[in-house]
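We modelled the chain as a single entity of 238 amino acids. Its sequence is:
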Amino acid sequence: MADRFPQAHAAFLGGSSPTARRTPWSDLDIVVVLDGRPASFRETLRHDGQLVEWFVYTPTSLRHYWQQNISHRRTPLLRMVAEGVTLIEADGRAGAYRAEATELLAAGPPAPAADTLAFQRYLVTDLLDDLRGCADPVEIAFLAATLVLAASDLLLLAENRWSARGKWLPRRLAELDPALPAQLMSAQQSALTDGNREPLVTAILAILNHTGGPLQEGFRLEGEDPAAPSPPKARPTN
């Protein structure tokens, strides 16, 4: 690493690799922070037979992508720095980044806007009706998978918790309810293997009811028209 990034003043090994969750297919997720060039790129290479994902930033671009994580309510980069293993530490800067990332994680995501939560409830309600009325087994399989993801996002949004994708999503759900990921998986499998959609319908309805209930009639989402004139600016009163 020192040969490739001699100007690095901090680096972290994140993801599953430094944990007990590592598998033979785990890659190495390495965050590098440096001054100067090269800066701000992501690259996947193989080194000595091991797949390595490089996440390379300057101090300013690192914080920029932290804020992007926060706006998307997901935390992969924040967690790699806050929870990863320090590989390079210069002048205490890696420790400072770790403390900053830890603080941002602990603060949680911004509170969701009411219309954002309403839209997610509407989306899940619509998908649930599609699942109830669907007869094609292929469509049922896709709907079941989409519903589990959308309902998971809805619950985490309503509880103002961090969300995730892939294997990290059930881990975020388990922080709310340790039994819920397995319950949703079992209900999804029942819809796919037995053709019995009722367990999944029941599980999704429970999430909807917990987050304000199904939403259809009365839902309204204001749109934007880039060609519409801007409202007049207020004039000063003095």
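As a brief sanity check on the tokenised model: The mean pLDDT is 91. Residues 191 and 197 are 5 Å apart (CA to CA).
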